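Reproducibility note. Readers wishing to regenerate the assembly model reported in the main text can use the exact inputs given here. Chain order matters: entities are listed in the order in which they were concatenated for prediction.
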Amino acid sequence: MTTLDQKPASSEGRKDPWSQMLQKVGKSQDREAYHALFEHFGPQIKYYAMANGLASHAEELVQEVFVSIWRRSCLYDWRKAAASTWIFTIARNQRIDMLRKMQRTSAEMPVETEDLWQIPGENENEPVTSLHRLMSERRIRESLSHLPEEQTTVIAKVYMENKSHQMVADELNIPLGTVKSRVRLALNKLKVILQDQNV
Amino acid sequence: MTRHHPDSLSLMEYSAGNLSEPHALCIRLHLDKCSHCRSRVDTLDSLGAVMMEQQPKVTVSESMFDSILAQIDSTPVDEPAMPPAPRISVLQKLLGEDLNSLPWKRQLGDVSVLDITDRFPGQKEQVVLQKLAAGGKAPAHTHRGEETTIVLQGAFADQKGVFNQWDFVVLTDQDEHKPVAVGCEDCITLSVLSAPVKLTGTFTRMLNPFIR
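Running the prediction on these inputs yields the following structure tokens for the assembly.
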């Protein structure tokens, strides 16, 4: 356990400046680090909002996400997720929450957004998994550039435009099976599909 | 021990935040108990982060940062950042403490149901709980659309195998099955149905979702 705790510090973890900055925000409310995170991730989140139909609320989403980042940064653990992954999940959850609140006139929402999309096990100590998480983000970034464009296009539509596989098929005018096989090929190459499916 | 997992494509739709609320609930309930799939979703979330990073750059006004700081500073410092209160599970929130004491409607023989679609306002899918009495059988049926099921209690078996607590299974119109509750507990499942089920046996008037 202890060796695993220390290893990534010298190899993986320290290489990611954003994770270091997020940690500073969490530990000492460092506003300079927070501003650097804003300059890097703010535009990404704004584009994310614009790409999936929240154009007129894009800056509002950026603001909400950054307030959440500030408030939750004390819970951030760089060994469990890279800052970019951690921030992506906050942006995703806030987007879903914003859309839900816009669509519901009544306050009748027995199930909260966090109940459905907050990944459980946040407080667990899973050093092996966390190492795997850090590795996987670096590997994904590296291997994404080698994917054929038709595969990255489909993935981008799913993640950025929040289109279901069926909607992507309709838009590109290709069969649903083709969309699914492109995604599978991509996930295979990105090693997202793990070998031990029958665990 | 969980053995039937969601496929990578469903987990990807979950990670991207594209699933309907009832479908997301099924995945979320599985993730609660399956570290294997949690790890797969973590990886997919990283894929989402990398996709977000690789999109065209847009500008964000610097004044926005000031209003973010203003919002942060207006929050009382003594307010806890995150409520440390123990989380009530989403299942308890939806269904209360005891699944067995819900107002089940006995449909036929061994099968009882409870439609909880109204807990998901604005969603297109039908959401039903189904209970198959210990040792009981449901009549053979196929599904006209797609049925996503997660086992909440007990276990059932069909031609494809045994499905234990927190196992995840998707059935389509290709699948005819005849589930049997195994073990000494009633088997309770939560199913999300995109279209009604079609009967294949001699039963024609059944209205319960095991056979709908």
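We highlight two features of this model. Chain A touches chain B through 78 residues (CB under 8 Å). DSSP finds ten helices and no strands in chain A.
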